[in-house]
Amino acid sequence: MERKIFIRDCVFHIMLLIVVLVADQVTKLWARTTLPGAPIIVWKDVFSFRLIYNTGASFGIFKSHTLALTVFSIIGMLAICGFYVILPKKKKMRPMRLTLTMIVAGGVGNIIDRIAFGKVTDMISFDLIDFPVFNVADIGVTCGAIVMCLLWIFYYKDEDFEKWKKSNS
């Protein structure tokens, strides 16, 4: 991929990151100001908005380890950004860079909450199944990770990374 196209993609990804972050923070602010009294039932026994604070990670694991999760998350986001930069600058790597952007956007959204409030604000609840309450940042991380796994399984081949492996050894 030419340098000019790579820079254009980076600008697009930064804009996408900002859009996801703003959407995440606006919905969390809405939840903190609107939902403390009672949940909003959108579809009885199926979907609602309810305010939950999570001091742990996904599914409530590592509860009350906010500092460790924050440090680990920051290190993880920096590592992902580094991986983004050193990926081969080929057109074929565009989907991978997009998934990395979604993961970082979601990760940073939850880091902001941990630093500002000591906990993550969650508000989206699927009541039909026993599923944890989540937020927009979680959607970015989860969708990015799922698409990345699918790319690794079905789209990328070992040959796509051969030159990159040699030049980074």
Task: Please describe what this structure looks like.
The chain is 63% helix and 11% strand. The chain has 169 residues and is mostly helical. α1 (3-34) packs parallel to α3 (94-117), α2 packs antiparallel against α3 and α3 (94-117) runs antiparallel to α4. The longest helix has 32 residues, at 3-34.
Which shape, going by the Cα principal axes? elongated
Spatially, the strands of the biggest sheet line up as: 1-2-3
Q: Largest sheet, if any?
A: 3 strands, antiparallel
Question: What count of helical segments does DSSP give?
Answer: 5
Distance between the termini: 21 Å
Number of strands: 3
Provide the gyration radius in Å: 18 Å
Q: What does the average pLDDT come to?
A: 90
> Which structural class is indicated by helix and strand composition?
mainly alpha
Strand content: 5-15%
- Which segments are poorly predicted (pLDDT under 50) over 5 or more consecutive residues? none
The secondary-structure element order is HEEHHEHH
The share of residues in helices is 55-70%
Question: TL;DR of this structure?
Answer:
The chain has 169 residues and is mainly alpha-helical. It is built from five helices and three strands. Strands 1-2-3 form a three-stranded antiparallel sheet.
